[in-house]
Amino acid sequence: MKKILIVDDEVNVGLLLSKFLTRNNFDVTTANNGANAMEHLKNAEYDLVLCDFRLEDTDGRQMLINIKTSYPKTGVIIITGYSDIKMAVELIKMGAYDYITKPLYPDEILNTITKAIETRHALLEEEPVAAATTTKPSKSDKKQVLSSEFVLGNAKASKELLRQIELVAPTNYSVIIIGESGTGKESVAKSIHLNSPRHAQPFIAMDCGSLTKELAQSEFFGHEKGSFTGALYTKIGHFEMANGGTLFLDEVGNLSYDIQAALLRTVQERKVKRIGSTKEIDLDVRIIVATNENLQDAIQKGRFREDLFHRFNEFGIYMPALRERGSDIMLLADHFLKMANQELGRNVSSFAPDVIECFMNYRWPGNIRELKNVVRRAALLTEGDEVQMKALPLEISINTKYMMPAAAEPAPVSHAEPTPATAKEPKHDLKNAALEAEYDTILKVLREVNFNKTKAAEILQIDRKTLYNKMKAINLGK
After folding, report:
1. Which of 39, 171, 317, 328 has its CB 3.0 to 4.6 Å from that of 155, i.e. a possible disulfide?
2. In the chain, count of helices (H) and strands (E)?
3. What CATH number is attached to the domain comprising 335?
4. Whole-structure pTM value
5. How far apart are CA 409 and CA 442, in angstroms?
6. 51 is in which domain, residue-wise?
7. pLDDT in tens, 395-416
8. How many domains does the chain have?
9. Distance CA 398, CA 388 (A)
């Protein structure tokens, strides 16, 4: 269990944070001032310190200096008000992992803490063991540091992916990661960052797919207080937050053309200016972008700037889909099962043979993300120590049960006499023909809507209950 120390002189804030993090499986200790916090640190080892910037006996800057001097392996996150953001950014450059602004939001806190602890553990694994000789280690002796979300695979595609990470990480190249949704593009970006000379600096991830045109400039470049209606405080943009480190832009193809133009200027000049400010800030940021679409096609259609594409495309990495990774499917499934056991306090040890066959035959349109969710769900539903077919979602068990090979050879024509069983089979039975047609129609619609039964019922113009009954009648469900 990960240990967290909360330092805040507001007792209620510390208590609420402690209860929330305890519910999320963290071992939490609280301190109401800096001296008390340092005493706790002297008596126990903590993965992370969550420290308010303003304390009754000191401030976040001095606390960061004290912690990094005496306990350099301990991560620090600063809790700050909007008026302290500029100082918080300075603290990140001094070694703090990140900052969280008040008011505090549970999802933001949990996400930031999880990423901070992952980064800390990855960096600890990177520390070289003292060599017995003075011989310079060869390139092959260097241990590669990977994001905790990255699972080493044995498939050829997985080994090639690892080779490319190792190749590009030590450089300062911008990287485009191309792959379907759910293939683990962010975990690759993190692994590149952790193996780069920038590994001790911030890794800032930004989801471009969720940005509106109006918000994008503020998110990228930041703004000054009062620079526009609703700008109630100074905001630090993602470029400035990532200064010295790595900025990861996910689903970059979704950015509007206007924002692409502003982005190009920033990338070319390596300077950023907040909205409403006249001061330019020098940037030293490595950019890694990810996309699930073909940007060359987007360029041809006038949706993506060719000059920006070439700025990003100094090195390209293709993310293989899960269905292309063969035996890695079960390697990943076992990994996610162990994670689910730890999360749920269960002891599910394996998958039934028909589940393994099902996993290997399913096409996994949601890729690694879908596999992880399926395994977590199965672990929750499994009563014994082995995952059975009944614990799998309907869309997976049906898809694999009724999926025909894409290029199946026609069955050879048999000239033998029919067996008694086949002789009895009614070939021109209208009732059976109607059932077959109904089965084909229902299955076709289910596949079209990715087994969303509400949408399927709407298309078929029946209610959900009728759809369930029909699926049961034609053996489409368990």
Report:
1. 328
2. 20, 16
3. 1.10.8.60
4. 0.61
5. 25
6. 3-125
7. 787 765 545 444 334 444 444 4
8. 4
9. 14
